[in-house]
Design a protein that fits this description.
The two termini are 26 Å apart. The protein contains eleven helices and 16 strands. Helix content is 41%, strand content 17%. The protein has a seven-stranded mixed beta sheet. A four-stranded mixed beta sheet has the order 11-8-9-14, covered by helices on one side. The chain has a three-stranded antiparallel beta sheet with strand order 1-2-3. It has two domains: 8-136, translation initiation factor eif-2b, domain 1 (Four Helix Bundle (Hemerythrin (Met), subunit A)); 142-349, 3-Layer(aba) Sandwich (Rossmann fold), CATH 3.40.50.10470. Helix 2 packs parallel to helix 4 and helix 3 (74-86) packs antiparallel against helix 4 (93-108). By secondary structure, the chain is of the alpha/beta class. The longest helix has 30 residues, at 113-142. The model has no long low-confidence stretch (mean pLDDT 96). Bound molecules: 5-S-methyl-1-O-phosphono-5-thio-D-ribulose. 5-S-methyl-1-O-phosphono-5-thio-D-ribulose is lined by residues 49-52, 92, 156, 158, 162-163, 168, 195, 233-236, 246-247, 312. 5-S-methyl-1-O-phosphono-5-thio-D-ribulose (MRU) binds at residues 49-52, 92, 156, 158, 162-163, 168, 195, 233-236, 246-247, 312.
Length: 350
């Protein structure tokens, strides 16, 4: 089974072409970004979103931006571009991971400008290609967790749109389906940005995966009904102790899963694990504009001028997580031991 989704690519000129996820599922429009700053703005505006996809976009944007900078004073100008990129969205650590990869190349090529530009291009392509391979490996480790006939609850979008094209949590579903399992997905709509109803449902329908959308508030009732075999979601940042930041509402789903004895899994590449951060309290949580809560598609759904609370992510405590599926295997509690071991394993494989 192949994912038919291509959320991001580079054209022959090195420009970054992204599927505008703000318009889905109604319009499929690809936008071309011709500078690193424009790519950063595209990330901020959620043209592309999802932690791994943000990392890929940042790498491609920096490779593109580097070509516009003069050899003289390149280091300082590139660092400034990295700062612009880093300021686009604060929670998904894959953004900073990708920036660090590109910065390391600049440091390794001081005084060799021509080969540096090619090296940055090649690194951006590697980040993209690796992400597909990593997601398929996550799928390979996660598929055995899915029963032969399963009903799976998801939150947000963690599929091809959120990565280079396969998916993390939805990638596990894809891999399970590819292995011949009969999987039905229940996708929380994921207010306020509707990544579940707009994006996950669109992807699943496109790829022939059985999907049903539900209002976020219906998840507790669904879990209480006993119809869900497992819940699996992605992550934007995983602290050393396993506490996991993911789309707002994830913590409610995890808590309800615990209440009803349903295993709750995270699926994410090890690039989403931030070993520098001891626990979830240290994860920066992005706050997004009030209008995302008080309106839908630019139409108000609340009294004009009302205040709104719009944190984009929440933190699920590690104790609620049955396992964290990565490209190197499934980490289990105690995560302080299993996560560093898997990250280290990845460092050795590379
Ligand atoms: O605000 P978004 O849409 O970028 O948030 C995305 C999520 O929270 C995803 O669940 C997470 O990035 C994992 S994507 C594979």
């Amino acid at each position: 089974m192949k994912s038919t989704i291509t959320p991001i690519r580079r054209d022959d000129a090195g420009h970054v072409v992204m599927l505008d996820q703000r318009l889905l599922p109604f319009e499929e429009v690809y936008l071309t970004f011709e500078s690193g700053e424009a790519v950063a703005q595209g990330i901020r505006d959620m043209v592309i979103r999802g932690a791994p996809a943000i990392g890929v976009a940042a790498a491609m944007g920096l490779a593109l931006g580097a070509r516009r900078l003069a050899a003289e004073g390149f280091g300082a100008a590139f660092a400034a571009l990295c700062d612009v990129m880093a300021a686009s969205r604060p929670t998904a650590v894959n953004l900073f991971w990708a920036i660090d990869r590109m910065k390391a190349l600049v440091e390794a090529h001081v005084g060799d400008h021509a080969s540096l530009l090619d090296a940055l291009d090649a690194e951006a392509e590697r980040v993209y290609a690796e992400d597909i391979a990593i997601c398929q490996a996550i799928g390979g480790h996660g598929a055995p967790l899915v029963p032969e006939e399963a009903t799976v609850l998801t939150h947000c979008n963690t599929g091809g749109l959120a990565t280079a094209g396969w998916g993390t949590a939805l990638g596990v579903v894809r891999s399970a389906v590819a292995a011949g399992k009969r999987v039905a997905v229940f996708a929380d709509e994921t207010r306020p940005y509707l990544q579940g109803s707009r994006l996950t449902a669109w992807e699943c329908l496109k790829d022939g995966i059985d999907v049903t959308v539900l209002a976020d508030g219906a998840a507790g009732f669904l879990l209480a009904s006993g119809r869900i075999d497992l819940a699996i979601v992605g992550a934007d940042r995983i602290a050393r102790n396993g506490d996991t930041a993911n789309k707002i509402g994830t913590y409610m789903v995890a808590t309800l899963c615990a209440r009803h004895g349903v295993p709750f899994y995270i699926a994410a590449p090890t690039s989403t694990v931030d070993l520098q951060i001891p626990d979830g309290a240290a994860i920066p949580i992005e706050e997004r504009p009030a209008e995302e809560v008080t309106g839908v598609f630019g139409k108000p759904i609340a009294p004009i001028g009302v205040k709104a609370f719009n944190p984009s992510f929440d933190v699920t405590p590690a104790e609620l997580i049955a396992g964290i599926v990565t490209e190197h295997g499934v980490a289990r509690a105690p995560y302080e031991e299993s996560l560093p071991a898997l990250v280290e394993l990845g460092a050795r494989v590379v």
